[in-house]
Amino acid sequence: MKEDRKFLRQCAACKSYKQKEDLIRITKDYKTEKIHINLGNEINGRSVYLCKSEECINKFLSKKGIEHYLKTKTTENIKEKLYTVLKK
Ligand SMILES: [Zn+2]
Fold it and tell me: How far, in Å, CA of 51 to CA of 43, rounded?
């Protein structure tokens, strides 16, 4: 169905479109400037999406995607959280 397309989000690493459920959502809170991984829609902020694959996470991190899209530094904490999502 065509209507489903608007629910698709683009992976920032491989640029493919997927359902939100199949992606990792990285959000920077406008107020606190903290980075949240997969916290749902209750946070207002800038978001970027990634496939749940090590390849896309690696590509995103190596291209400094966090800095580029979210204007903040990539911390070890963020990296750890991203890779934790894969293990679930
Ligand atoms: Zn991807």
Answer: 20
Distance 56 CA to ligand 1 centre (A): 5
| pLDDT 10s digits, 27-76 | 999 899 999 998 766 778 999 999 999 999 999 999 999 999 999 999 99
CA of 48 to the centre of ligand 1 (A): 11
What domains, with CATH codes, occur in the chain? 2-87 (3.30.1230.10)
> From edge to edge, which strands make up the β-sheet containing 23-29?
35-37, 23-29, 45-51
